[in-house]
């Protein structure tokens, strides 16, 4: 039964004009709706208030006679139907209908610091997009991230802070941590500086992280692995450095791609290498490539720019 037909039947029932077949049809539809209503949990003060208001509006206009069944069960079901459809819709509109989406982005070689309405501070790495709704503080404080960001979350035990990244959720009450989740990456990384951080996917919790913990979650199959990282190194990029310790060549190239917005094409296994680098973020791309070429060793590498792609070759050590 579509919405228009249902409303017409309700009007006829309130006026005492329903035929027996129409009442049976209305009962049948309400039975189905009542069975499905268990999927919605209106357990909030706001919804309870709306229920009372809706019931008060329906009952005074309902006649006390019906030729086939007792009135109150039908009235209750009609009230439930209106409550389920209109009250929930009204509640959701009141909560979210007037919300606006705030989008903050950074370009290549750009680091940006922002403060959220709750007082939390976020540093956005190059090539990053952060989204959140206003009003911000509701049941949860939710943001959506593509890229890399460092979070210093203001503590609020009543309103958990949630970061959504490609279906993976990071939930905290008040702590500081870093998330690396670029679209082109195969994994999402979360590393903790202070406090406790819960990382999960839908109803599955991967881990509860504490300071120096890092989790790497594969996007494709949601497998995860844990390791440890120096907390002082986690947020160094927020103070103007590109810092890597014991990184493979693959990790080095990935970092340069994220910061400078370039593409590399490699011609050998880039899982090799062991780089420890500290580069000033003010360096141009050419300057950064020159330094990496100079310090590279096993493998010794050289870069060659062809059109918009940077090719990476292994070269002999002189």
From TrEMBL:
Residues 104-198 form the FecR protein domain. Residues 242-312 form the Protein FecR C-terminal domain. Coiled coil: none annotated. Keywords: Membrane, Transmembrane, Transmembrane helix. Gene3D superfamilies: 2.60.120.1440, 3.55.50.30. The chain crosses the membrane at residues 71-93. This is FecR domain-containing protein. The lineage of its organism: Bacteria, Pseudomonadati, Bacteroidota, Cytophagia, Cytophagales.
């Amino acid at each position: 039964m579509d919405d228009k037909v249902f409303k017409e039947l309700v009007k006829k029932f309130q006026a005492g004009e329903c035929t027996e077949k129409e009442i049976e049809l209305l009962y049948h539809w309400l039975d189905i709706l009542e069975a499905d209503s268990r999927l919605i949990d209106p357990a909030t003060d706001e919804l309870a208030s709306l229920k009372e208001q809706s019931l008060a509006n329906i009952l005074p206009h309902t006649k006390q006679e019906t030729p086939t069944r007792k009135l109150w069960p039908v009235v209750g079901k009609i009230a439930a139907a209106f409550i389920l459809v209109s009250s929930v819709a009204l509640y959701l509109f009141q909560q979210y209908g007037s919300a606006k989406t705030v989008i903050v982005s950074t370009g290549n070689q750009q680091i940006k610091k922002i403060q959220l309405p709750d007082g939390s501070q976020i540093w956005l790495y190059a090539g990053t997009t952060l989204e959140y709704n206003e009003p911000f503080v509701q049941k949860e404080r939710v943001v959506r991230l593509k890229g890399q960001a460092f979070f210093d979350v203001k503590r609020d035990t009543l309103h958990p802070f949630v970061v959504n990244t490609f279906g993976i959720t990071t939930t905290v009450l008040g702590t500081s941590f870093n998330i690396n989740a670029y679209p082109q990456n195969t994994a999402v990384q979360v590393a903790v500086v202070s406090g406790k951080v819960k990382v999960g996917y839908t109803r599955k919790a991967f881990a509860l992280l504490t300071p120096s913990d890092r989790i790497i979650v594969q996007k494709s199959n949601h497998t995860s692995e844990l390791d440890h990282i120096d907390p002082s190194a986690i947020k160094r990029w927020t103070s103007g450095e590109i810092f890597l310790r014991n990184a493979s060549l693959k990790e080095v190239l990935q970092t340069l791609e994220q910061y400078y917005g370039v593409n590399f094409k490699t011609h050998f296994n880039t899982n090799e290498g062991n780089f420890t680098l500290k580069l000033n973020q003010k360096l141009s791309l050419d300057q950064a490539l020159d330094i990496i070429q100079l310090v590279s060793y096993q493998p010794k590498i050289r870069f060659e720019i062809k059109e918009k792609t940077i090719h990476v070759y292994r070269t002999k050590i002189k």
